[in-house]
C-alpha cells in the first residue's frame, strides 16, 4: 500500500484510462459453446467417461479406440482436443514434440493384478522362484512389475510374455496353479471363467507400499496446449464433468455397469459390475499430480529412458486449473 500511495493522482488516472482501453479492445470472455472432441481407449479410461457419454451433451463428441497410437495421431493432427492416454505416452508426446499437450488430470491408477489359483501367494514377495505369465514386453506392464519385484527383494523369477491377455486367460483356465499378471477387466473375465482363480494381490497396492509419494499412474487426460489457451473455460468445465462422471462410476456401479456394456467395453453386466471397483478409476487434479506422475515416470525412465521419451517432463507438462 505504501508504494501505491506514492503514485500521483494524474498517474493513477492515466493508468486507469489505459486499463479501460485495454479492456474495451481485448477478447470478450469465452463461453462454453465450443464442441470438445474427446478420445479414449476401450477399457478403464472410458469406464470413467460413460456417465458423461450417457448424458448426450452436444458440447462433447466422444471417440473410443483400441490403440493408444490412434489417439496420439489424432492429437498431433488436431482432430482431438482432449484424450485419455497412458502416462508414458503423454510424456513421449511431450518430449518428442509430436503433439503439444498438457496433462489436465490423472484418470486411472493401477489396473494390474496378480491372479492365480495358488492361495499361498499373497504379495509380491511370494513370487520368488516363480514363472509369471504377463503381457506388455518392453512396455509399462513389464517395467512396473520388475520395479515392484525388485523393491520386494525378488530376484529369482521369470517373466513369460504372451501377446494377448486372452491367451493368458486360456492358459490359466487349463492350469489355475500358474501365476499371471493381467489388467482389468481381463482379470475379472478370467476369474469368472474359472472358479479356481483368485486375485491374490493388486500391483497398485504393492506400488504404494514401496514407492515414495508417487502413484502407479496408468492413465492421464491430456489436452492440446492450443486448445487450453483458446478455450480454458471449456477445459475446466470438462474437468468438472469428468470428476462427476468418475464419482458416478464408483458410487453407482449398477447403472455404470449397464452403460459399460452399452458402450461395448465388456460383454456382460456381471463382468462389468465386478470389474469396476477394481479399475481404480479416478479424476485427480491439482498440484499433487506433478509429484505423483513424475515419480511414476522416473521409475520407467530408470529402467528404459525411451519409455518416457528420453527425459522427465518439465512443469509445463502440467495444466493446473485455476
Summarize the structure in words.
This protein has 15 helices and 11 strands. The two termini are 26 Å apart. Helix 7 (140-151) crosses helix 10 (203-210), helix 8 (165-174) packs parallel to helix 9 and helix 9 packs across helix 14 (269-275). The relative contact order is 0.18. Residues 1-31 have low confidence and may be disordered. The protein has helices at 2-5, 9-25, 44-47, 50-54, 68-77, 87-96, 140-151, 165-174, 186-193, 203-210, 225-230, 232-251, 253-262, 269-275, 288-303; strands spanning 36-41, 60-65, 82-86, 101-108, 112-116, 130-134, 157-161, 179-183, 198-202, 219-224, 281-284. Strands 2-1-3-10-4-11 form a 6-stranded mixed beta sheet, sandwiched between helices. A 5-stranded mixed beta sheet has the order 7-6-8-5-9, with helices on both faces. The protein is globular and about 55 Å long. Helix 7 links the parallel strand 6 and strand 7. It is an alpha/beta fold and 322 residues long.
Amino acid at each position: 500500500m505504501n508504494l501505491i500511495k506514492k503514485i500521483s493522482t494524474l498517474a493513477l488516472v492515466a493508468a486507469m484510462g489505459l486499463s479501460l482501453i485495454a479492456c474495451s479492445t481485448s477478447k470478450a470472455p469465452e463461453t462454453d459453446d465450443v464442441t470438445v472432441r474427446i478420445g479414449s481407449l476401450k477399457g478403464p479410461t472410458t469406464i470413467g467417461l460413460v456417465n458423461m457419454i450417457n448424458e448426450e451433451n452436444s458440447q462433447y463428441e466422444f471417440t473410443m479406440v483400441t490403440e493408444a497410437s490412434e489417439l496420439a495421431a489424432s492429437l498431433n493432427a488436431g482432430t482431438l482436443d482432449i484424450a485419455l492416454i497412458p502416462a508414458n505416452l503423454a510424456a513421449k508426446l511431450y518430449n518428442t514434440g509430436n503433439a503439444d499437450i498438457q496433462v489436465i488430470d490423472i484418470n486411472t491408477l493401477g489396473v494390474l493384478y496378480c491372479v492365480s489359483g495358488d492361495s499361498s501367494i499373497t504379495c509380491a514377495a511370494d513370487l520368488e522362484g516363480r514363472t509369471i505369465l504377463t503381457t506388455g514386453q518392453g512396455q509399462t506392464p513389464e517395467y512396473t512389475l520388475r520395479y515392484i519385484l525388485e523393491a520386494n527383494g525378488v530376484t529369482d523369477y521369470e517373466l513369460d510374455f504372451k501377446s494377448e491377455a486372452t491367451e493368458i486367460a486360456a492358459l490359466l483356465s487349463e492350469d489355475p496353479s500358474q501365476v499371471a499378471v493381467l489388467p482389468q477387466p481381463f482379470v475379472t473375465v478370467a476369474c469368472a471363467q474359472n472358479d479356481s482363480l483368485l486375485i491374490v494381490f493388486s500391483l497398485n497396492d504393492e506400488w504404494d507400499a514401496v514407492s515414495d509419494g508417487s502413484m502407479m499412474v496408468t492413465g492421464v487426460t491430456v489436452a492440446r496446449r492450443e486448445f487450453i489457451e483458446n478455450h480454458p473455460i471449456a477445459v475446466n468445465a470438462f474437468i468438472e464433468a469428468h470428476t462427476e462422471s468418475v464419482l458416478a462410476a464408483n458410487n453407482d456401479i449398477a447403472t455404470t455397469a449397464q452403460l459399460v456394456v452399452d458402450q461395448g467395453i465388456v460383454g456382460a453386466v456381471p463382468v462389468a459390475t465386478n470389474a469396476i471397483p477394481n479399475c481404480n478409476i479416478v479424476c485427480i487434479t491439482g498440484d499433487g499430480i506433478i509429484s505423483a506422475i513424475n515419480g511414476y515416470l522416473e521409475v520407467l525412465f530408470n529402467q528404459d529412458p525411451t519409455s518416457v521419451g528420453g527425459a522427465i517432463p518439465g512443469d509445463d507438462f502440467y495444466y493446473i486449473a485455476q
